[in-house]
Amino acid sequence: MPLFDTHCHIHEAVRKTTPVHDKWHSNGKVDVEAILTEAKAADVRYLNCVGTTLADSRLAVEFVQNRVDMWASIGIHPHEAHDHLASEVQQQFAELANAKKVVAIGECGLDYFYGHSSKAEQLQLLEFQLELAQKHHLPVVFHVREAFKDFWRVFERFSGVRGVLHSYTDNQANLERALSHGLFIGVNGICTFAKDPAQIAMYKAIPLQKLLLETDAPFLTPAPYRGTICMPKHVAVTAEFAANLRGETFKQIIAATTTNAFQLFGIN
Questions:
Q1: Dihedral sign of CA atoms 84, 64, 97, 103 in order
Q2: Tens-digit pLDDT profile for residues 171-230
Q3: How far apart (Å, rounded) are the C-alpha atoms in residues 205 and 195?
């Protein structure tokens, strides 16, 4: 069974829509088709392209329409909440949920590590996107950083919402709380260079049936490729590392995580 990169931003390599993703273009023009060819050569066949703004989500939807085994998630990142408060902007975003090949809402959530948007703005946009997910019966891709107390307070008011904690690096207690709600746990290249014993133990404790693999490309490149742009093909590196760390076979990791992704995103 091929690998599934459940969280990447490769659509941003086509054209810049947000300054934060200029990393794709740091070395000039990007050959997107070559990146996809390399991914397939590494047996990474399935990709979920994740939006972070209205414009970026539109691009993600556009990017996957005529590509096989690729889907889109539409989201407003907590950093971008300040620029998405207007009702007309939110209405345009909500309309994207009806687009073909949209399999999730997000990435959305709370990030109190940076102050790009206020807490009040982030909370407002999180609730808006959770309401949208409920309306369309879509799972949610969550970004939560140093904000779990407020996140649980909001999340637990929205019954039936399912999803994944993207790029999870938090503690065992929040892991157990997430699992009690049926959430999946997204793991990327960070696990390959984590040093904290508690964090390493947490990665080992994620049940295989709740584990998802991702790259967050172009960010979070796994070891030993640190210092280069992260690509979807690198999910294979993370898969191999995770298998060795957890005492599972590479094939077990691939089969479980790809099956989990199809289950979460409702892909037949």
A1: negative
A2: 999 999 999 999 999 999 999 999 999 999 999 999 999 999 999 999 999 999 999 999
A3: 16
Q: How confident is the model at residue 268 (pLDDT cuts 50, 70, 90)?
A: confident
**What's residue 24's pLDDT?**
77
Domains identified in the chain, total number? 1
pLDDT at 20 over 90: no
pLDDT at 56 over 90: yes
- Residues 6 or more apart whose CB falls under 8 angstroms from that of 249 comprise 243
CB 189 within 8 A of CB 221: yes
Structural domain of 199: 3-265
- Residue 19 clears pLDDT 70, i.e. is over it: no
CATH code of the domain containing 182: 3.20.20.140
For tokens 């992704």, the residue is 261
Pairwise CA distance, residues 15 & 29, whole Å: 10
